[in-house]
Design a protein that fits this description.
two-stranded parallel sheet, 6 helices
């Protein structure tokens, strides 16, 4: 660990010197006892809030049975959820990912695959906003185009065209 580094965690973000002990609905409780309204929802991950009793019960029941099964096998719960999502939306199929970057990679790949299958493989470019952040994979970093995230990772993945944000 370098002299300036205070943690063994890879410094991928500038962390605020604030830690949370628990959450209650839309509220976070810091280790020092202060309460904060969770406006970030864990950067859009905890949209259902924290520690809802029904969700805690469902997670506890599942943890008593299985923690994880590879998607190499059928997962009936995932199939039921996918069917419910499709019934309530425009979708015919659902992709469950592990992160926003994985979802963005899927979107990029699906758009490219659609164009290729339609006989237009030359249509591979993705339009993004200048300065946007889409994730930490090579393709999502390229889509954002921010030098501070791209520097040191070699040639930028091809296929992203940035649109300058309007003022």
């Amino acid at each position: 660990m370098s002299g300036a580094q205070t943690s063994h965690l890879l410094p991928t973000t500038a962390r605020v010197d604030l830690a949370f002990d628990r959450g209650e609905g839309a509220w976070l409780l810091a280790t020092n006892g202060d309460r904060y309204l969770d406006f970030t929802s864990g950067v859009a991950v905890n949209a259902l809030g924290h520690a809802h009793p029904h969700l805690v019960e469902a997670i506890t029941e599942q943890a008593k049975k299985l923690w994880h099964v590879s998607n190499l096998y059928r997962i009936p719960e995932s199939e039921r959820l996918a069917a419910r999502l499709c019934a309530a939306s425009f979708a015919d199929v659902v992709f469950f990912g592990n992160s926003g970057a994985e979802a963005m990679e899927c979107a990029i790949k699906m758009a490219r695959k659609y164009q290729s299958a339609s006989g237009k493989p030359e249509r591979f470019r993705i339009i993004t906003y200048e300065g946007a952040f889409h994730g930490r994979t090579l393709a999502t970093l390229a889509a954002g185009g921010q030098k501070k995230y791209l520097e040191g990772f070699g040639p930028v993945s091809r296929g992203s065209t940035r649109c300058v944000r309007g003022s």
